[in-house]
Specification:
Chain A: InterPro entries: Dimeric_a/b-barrel, YCII. Chain A: It holds the Pfam family YCII. Chain A: Belongs to the YciI family. Chain A: Residues 1-114 form the YCII-related domain. Chain A: This is YCII-related domain-containing protein. The complex is a heterodimer. By secondary structure, chain A is an alpha+beta fold. Chain A has one domain (2-111): Alpha-Beta Plaits, CATH 3.30.70.1060. Chain A is built from 2 helices and 6 strands; from the N terminus they run βαββββαβ. Chain A has a 4-stranded antiparallel beta sheet with strand order 2-5-1-6, covered by helices on one side. The longest helix of chain A is centred in the N-terminal third of the chain and has 20 residues, at 20-39. The relative contact order of chain A is 0.33. Among the domains of chain B are: 2-97; 106-164 and 176-220, no CATH class. Helix content of chain B is 70%, strand content 0%. In chain B, helix 3 (55-73) runs antiparallel to helix 4 (82-97), helix 11 runs parallel beside helix 13 and helix 16 (343-350) packs antiparallel against helix 17 (361-373). The longest helix of chain B has 24 residues, at 2-25. The interface between A and B is small, with 12 and 10 residues.
């Protein structure tokens, strides 16, 4: 079963670029990536540009409305994701708990809908 | 006649049947629906052709066939689906073996699924009661003062989540075992407490929920022996439940342990609890439920309230605080302390909990009792007032109002009024 791990955190809660903490944190993320690859659960995973770069789009009465900003203004914002292929929810929770941001933010795990 | 036999089979084997079905179908909702179909079918067939030799086996086989029908009729039916093929195979095997063998007991797996931490705590309780206990949705709704449609909706959502999010139907192993067992035990204890100390409404004791909780703990103890904390929880609940006839007046008013008629305690149930906790403590793996059970054992062994061995209870609370340092456990420790070192010591020691337990009715009730015993009557009245304000249980309120009246009277007597 595939699970999407959505990574939310408050801006500024992760270490600043260029600091030793940042380097340590990058190493941690790389380690997690490698763990996923070695375990054969990694489908994909990416970090997103910050929320200031977001554009939200909707179509109303046939017209495209474009808005500057994220879908919802929240304290913790979506900052990245992993798509993981796991046996069940227990395994998905186990791997999602390894994501460094789980310690200062929140990771939401959602199963991918099986349409096959 | 058929109706009576069927009710009996359902009462005895509902959880076991449903667990076996869920193990086969991997789908809570389909299992529940097929079971209903099978029960309806039993009423018709058993009346016509007599009660089968193995009624439970008959129900399981029929429910599986009903599930096959339901799958066939479903909108996106695919006869190559793994679920369907698996069921057909089981049905064939049943027919060949005349389904005389015992249904495998899958209830331990089921309870771990129902109490999965991915479900909301209240949902865990409701789903466990509905699936493994003998309670109907209407009864569970009543127990939690919910409307029945809301409770039914909660159960449907839970079954949907389990099916769609891949909650495993499995007994956890290794380092997961202790943590997940804890989740199961806390669900059972919450069920018990809901029955024991209803926070709202008139009936202080809802025996049904207490008995369900005891049944569930017994079930786990039976399916997985030698788990000290399982035995600890079971012993704890038995010893508290043994006081059910002594802890309320006929009109439902609460009687605290110090005023209870101890001859009304259920001695065989207490003996069962004490034996369990004694054996469990010998295994040398302490835990919070065992310690709470040991505390209840000391209470149970005292013939009178004034002969309670409070030193022992205080010592057990000192150990319990190491496992569970919550303010509520510390408050209970203060009650024990008040009988060892006096109410002034308890007032001093409970002072630290003031912020954390500001909105907790039993905190103010305990402080009021300490003041009362320390003969500081006006402070006692103030604390009783605060406790009464926070109390939403009629019989507990009545009890507090009476205590407040006593404190007020004593204060006036001291002033010579």
């Amino acid at each position: 079963m595939k699970y999407l791990a959505l990574i939310y955190s408050a801006p500024g809660s992760n270490p600043d670029y260029g600091t030793p903490e940042f380097a340590a944190s990058m190493e941690e993320w790389n380690k997690v990536n490698q763990t996923y690859i070695d375990a054969g659960v990694m489908v994909s995973g990416d970090a997103l540009q910050d929320v200031a770069t977001a554009t939200s789009i909707r179509i109303r009465d046939g017209k495209t409305e474009t808005m500057d900003g994220p879908f919802a203004e929240t304290k913790e914002q979506l900052g990245g994701y992993y798509l993981l292929d796991c046996a069940d929810l227990d395994e998905a929770i186990k791997y999602a708990a390894m994501i460094p941001a789980a310690r200062y933010g929140t990771v939401e795990v959602r199963p991918i809908m099986d349409l096959g | 006649m058929v109706h009576a036999v069927l009710s009996e089979v359902v009462q005895d084997s509902r959880g076991r049947l449903l667990a076996a079905l869920i193990a086969n179908l991997r789908d809570f909702q389909l299992a529940e629906d097929s079971m209903q179909d099978a029960l309806a079918s039993a009423l018709v067939h058993w009346r016509r052709s007599g009660i089968p030799a193995n009624p439970t086996g008959w129900l399981l086989q029929t429910a599986r066939r009903k599930a096959i029908d339901r799958l066939r009729m479903s909108r996106n039916f695919d006869n190559k689906s793994a679920q369907y093929a698996h069921l057909l195979k089981l049905d064939q095997a049943d027919a060949e073996e005349e389904s005389e063998q015992e249904i495998p007991d899958e209830r331990l797996r089921l309870i771990f699924t129902c109490c999965h931490p991915a479900l909301d705590p209240k949902t865990r309780i409701a789903l466990t009661l509905r699936t493994l206990g003998g309670l109907t949705t209407a009864e569970i709704a009543r127990a939690f003062l919910d409307r029945e449609p809301a409770m039914a909706q909660r159960l449907v959502r839970a079954r949907h989540k389990i099916a769609k999010s891949g909650v495993p139907f499995r007994i956890p192993e290794g380092d997961q075992w202790a943590e997940r067992l804890n989740s199961v035990l806390s669900v059972i204890y919450l069920i018990f407490n809901e029955g024991y100390a209803a926070t709202k409404g008139d009936r202080q004791i809802r025996v049904d929920l207490c008995e369900e909780a005891i049944f569930l703990a017994q079930l786990i103890a039976e399916l997985r022996a030698d788990q000290p904390e399982v035995d600890g929880l079971l012993a704890l609940m038995l010893m508290i439940h043994a006081r059910r006839h002594a802890r309320a007046t006929p009109d439902g008013a609460l009687i605290p342990i110090e005023d209870q008629d101890r001859t009304a305690w259920d001695q065989p149930m207490i003996a069962q609890g004490i034996k369990l906790i004694e054996t469990s403590l010998l295994r040398g793996s302490l835990g919070p439920y065992q310690l709470q059970a040991a505390i209840q054992a000391v209470h149970s062994e005292a013939l009178h309230f004034h002969t309670t061995r409070w030193h022992e209870i205080l010592g057990l609370y000192d150990l319990l605080v190491q496992f569970d340092g919550s303010a509520i456990v510390k408050l209970n420790r203060c009650v024990a302390l008040s009988y060892v070192d006096g109410p002034e010591a308890a007032l001093q020691s409970s002072q630290d909990l003031d912020v954390e337990l500001a909105e907790y009715q039993p905190y103010h009730a305990a402080r009021a009792a300490f003041y009362h015993r320390a003969k500081r009557h006006s402070l006692a009245v103030q604390s009783y007032d605060r406790a009464i304000d926070l109390c939403d249980n009629n019989s507990a309120t009545a009890f507090l109002v009476e205590k407040r009246r006593d404190a007020k009277k004593e204060a006036e007597q001291m002033l010579g009024l």
